[in-house]
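Handout, page 2. Input:
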Amino acid sequence: MYIEHLGFDPETVPKLTFLQMLKRIGPGIILTGVVIGPGAITTAAMLGANYGYDMLWLFIPIFLMGITFMLTCYRITMLTGMPIIHAIRHYYGKGSAAFVGVCLFLACLFFTFGNISGSGAGMNLLFGIDWKIGALIMIAILLVMYFSKNTYSKVEKGILLCILAMIAAFYATLYVSGGPEWGGFFQGVTHWGFPKGSIHNSLAFISTHAAITAGVYGTYLGAEKKWNKKDMFNGTMLADAIAHVVTVILISGAVVLVGAIVLHPQGLRIKAPAQLAAMLRPFLGGYANLVMGLALLGAAFSSLLGNTQRGVVLLNAGLDKDVSLESKLVRWLCVACIVFGCVICFLYNGSPTRLIFIANLATAIGTPTAGFFVTRMIWRKDVNEGMKQPLLLQISMTVCYLFALGMTVYALVAKL
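Output:
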């Protein structure tokens, strides 16, 4: 049955070697660059500053949700031959696909504002130039990458460099600050609970780090990477999902720990990631601006590079338009979003705090809308036709979706 449905016997598909796997994965790395932007750094630093080690347990549901969302989306796409929003259109109609596409686009658009401000702030810390000039320089580099050939390859490599820069910067900061207090660290991981006033920060943190938007966009990146059905059995999809979630946790976990070690004991609070440089100066001295500037620029530019494309691709998918990264429509819509974002950021004088909050809220709403259809599809018999029902993945997707939905409803009701 499997052979007839897939065109090959899954048991005969060889597992890839480590080096072969490195060549096949890639969408997950791009998605890490998209996820870890100035907003993610801000919420992570605030979490550590406000609650110390108490909220480290959030990385456990983030790991489970991130892996589940990505593997579910990848499986649906491999079995149906359609990326997620196209599959939603096929099974549930044009209106549903358009609604999901617009919701996810708006969430990405708001993040673009914060990414523009963040890239300017990074340039300011590194070179002392006006943040607006710095932002325009980075946008010029961005546009060159958008309009060059082999766009996917350039984006993947550019984001990988940014991720390595972020990891180096934050772990250097952790080393200089003396590292965590291990008793508090393990207690924060094993004792689950929400300290007073933490629910909204927790929602923003989880919705940023484990949004189903990543899995949805990953299915379009997989098409750019030329994935095929054999990648569902040779280890590629699982390795890509793990690579994404682990790199997100490595970077964001370091930021939370910096906040817990450095900021929390002093009762310091931050509203923007650039403030971390001044607060870390006692530990890093004259290297504070260099380290945080490098981290912030890497976070902002990698997220700006991938996030703008993500929003446009998901919007076009919802409206049944061209989704190729090298299509003129995608490229020029990306330019329009960047121009619009610059106008908004310059009018707000580069203060992304409120925009970051709105973006987090939009993402929190986007996950329940897209997740509703993804959860339904993974349970469909016609989607899994010819395959053994993935009961563990189906249950995990349902539980993770209900958890995200419950947190969103609770936070919105509490806010009202």
